[in-house]
Amino acid sequence: MKYLSEEVAYLRGLAEGLEIESETKEGKMICKIIDVLENLTDTLDDMQEDYDELVEYVESVDEDLSDVEDILYEEDDDDFDDDYDDEDCDDEDELSYIEMECPNCGDLVDIDEELLFDDSVDVICPNCQAIILSSEEDEDEDCCECGCSCENHEEK
């Protein structure tokens, strides 16, 4: 920007050396053009200073952000390595489901195979809320059509 300031100063000196008077129409115009060029040069100098300050500030913020990212990602990586277990991922992939038809509404329901072997769980249809698969305890209590337990029925 110094180059522009020097050029404007040269034009002012040239106008004074040529004895261009500001009282003539042409002289007024040339002097006004030189004044405008000086103002533009001053404004550009101020803008350049502001730009340089902003560049320094952004570089400082970028460095600080980089430090923060290093700290955060370093902690996240450590936590991820400690918490993540390949076997856990494999277990999730091995889940298998059996499709059963609800005896009440006929809706097809996917049931986790593990629930089939869990004696304490009743599988309920999400559509009609009817019991699709009951636990063995319930089956032992009402195993006959008459509603009595098998042990009582056999004794009679």
Largest sheet: 2 strands, antiparallel
Secondary-structure element order, as H and E?
Answer: HHHEEHEEHH
Task: Give the helix tally.
Answer: 6
Proportion of residues in helical segments: 55-70%
List low-confidence stretches: 137-141
- Would you tell me the overall average pLDDT? 78
Q: SS-based structural class?
A: mainly alpha
Give the CA-CA distance, first to last residue. 113 Å
Radius of gyration: 44 Å
Shape: rod-shaped
Explain the layout of strands and helices.
Blueprint: H1 2-17, H2 25-83, H3 86-93, E1 97-101, E2 108-112, H4 113-116, E3 123-124, E4 131-133, H5 136-141, H6 150-155
Antiparallel strand pairs: 1-2, 3-4
Helix pairs in contact: 1-2
If you had to describe this structure to a student in words, what would you say it looks like?
- The strands form two sheets. The chain has a two-stranded antiparallel ribbon.
- The protein has helices spanning about 1-15, 25-85, 85-95, 115, 135-140, 150-155, and strands spanning about 95-100, 110, 125, 130-135.
- It contains six helices and four strands; from the N terminus they run H-H-H-E-E-H-E-E-H-H.
- With about 160 residues, it is mainly alpha-helical.
- Helix 1 (about 1-15) packs antiparallel against helix 2.
- The protein has two domains: about 1-60; about 95-155, no CATH class.
Keywords summarizing the entry:
rod-shaped, 4 strands, two-stranded antiparallel ribbon, mainly alpha, 6 helices, 156 residues
